[in-house]
Amino acid sequence: MSKRSATNDLEDSGRRAAKINEDSVPTSIREASNGAEDAEMGEFEDPYGDDFESDEEIIEVDSDGVGEEMDEEDKSGDVEMQKDTQKAQEPEIYLPHKSKPLGPDEVLEADPSVYNMLHNINLPWPCLTVDILPDNLGSERRSFPASLYVATATQASRSKDNELISMKLSSLAKTLVKDEDEDDEDDDDDDDDYDVDPIMDSEQIPLKHTTNRIRVSPHSLETGEYLTATMSESGEVLIYDLAPQMKAFDTPGYMIPKQAKRPIHTIRAHGNVEGYGLDWSPLINTGALLTGDCSGRVHLTSRTTSSWTTDKTPFTASQASIEDIQWSTGESTVFATGGTDGYVRIWDTRSKKHKPAISVAASTTDVNVISWCEKINYLLASGHDDGSWSIWDLRKLFNGKEQPSPVANYDFHKSPITSISFNPLDESILAVSSEDNTVTLWDLAVEADDEEIKNQRNDFKELHDIPPQLLFVHWQRDVKDVRWHKQIPGCLVSTGGDGLNVWKTISV
């Protein structure tokens, strides 16, 4: 898993492209950047600034400052220039594998009509990872303004400046897009409901090293402990309980105890070998944590009544780096790993030999990330360093074939995949991020032979090499990690070089 260079030169603007609906294609608008200075951590950015265009007539002025009429030749040339200018300003389809890279003074602007919500959070340093903190605000939340809690950790230029940051983001308004024909007076009352400034409360815990991955226990609401693990580049795995921080967000005047800013346990089984693999069991509520490092070792740490215990014997198959780990969503003793040797492996913690039950060559390049479907527990997704990603039916991995093939494979991205995640509320929807600075949303339920899709592909030549399952393209610079919010349908949080994006599209 590649890192980005730590930098504090964070841009306030981003570029994004999106589909208006599942039958359309991503659009974008290129415009000059104003070079705004970086904002401090926690400052929310309004991605939809007010643009004003002058309707006044342009008059040519001679050297004496006196206006004069243009001759026919000048008028003809001016008309052609205006046509070229209008053509340059027309929206164009943005495709990460086809579109030209933007110039140093260009950005890709978000189309507000395709977002239900879009907020940017500027942080003091880039973050390689992010996760959602479960809350008591209820499930299936669809109303606005929205509130959510997240945890992230920084990649600072100096080790001593790193932090674990927990945040409460509230008053997140719905994206408002007015139709030009709408009566402003009729909409005043509706606009007042969303015309609020977003609010961020944050709590920081100092760290000594960059965090490669952070994961929050899915049992936090059930147990009351917000167990949060960080995989450090130093090789240490720190486990915190962020329950006091969560209480401080919702209890005015509450002071967080000093001990709450210290880890409740530190895993040192990996020595000084850093790693990226990290996952909490979704089925063992007492606390079961898997950690994998760059030397190919996987350790299981379990919670007992009085302490934490890490198995001394690691799970190993090769010396290739373990890039990602995922517990099974259906079997409490089964987990999967993806590594730099291109293999996806299925393991059972009951194995005395600590060897994989099955190994599948998923790619000729690194397997950077994997995701186990929560709704259908025999589906596993893998994202690869060559930009491709695949869906595996685990039932076919155990049928005796030498080399099973994926049930679906896509190579739309041409840069390494940095994150892949099944939607926890819809088994057919996935989010995939890539080093091409985009997050794509996919609907595997879309049939390629759908009549409407066929007609669109015939009408638009740009659609010929776009998979019909592609729903949406969201642009974010140096995007590294993407997480779905289980309690807010369709809401995602992604981290990149320009901080965090909290967004929800009209497509999901």
Automatic annotation (TrEMBL):
Residues 12-22, 76-90 have a biased composition (Basic and acidic residues). One of its GO terms (molecular function) is unfolded protein binding. WD repeats lie at residues 315-357, 410-444. The keyword GTP-binding does not apply. GO terms for biological process: ribosome biogenesis. Residues 1-104 are annotated as: Disordered. GO terms for cellular component: nucleolus. Keywords: Nucleus, Repeat, WD repeat. It is found in: Nucleus. Pfam families: CAF1C_H4-bd (PF12265), WD40 (PF00400). Residues 37-75 have a biased composition (Acidic residues). Residues 105-172 form the Histone-binding protein RBBP4-like N-terminal domain. It comes from the Eukaryota. PANTHER family: GLUTAMATE-RICH WD REPEAT-CONTAINING PROTEIN 1 (PTHR45903). This is Histone-binding protein RBBP4-like N-terminal domain-containing protein.
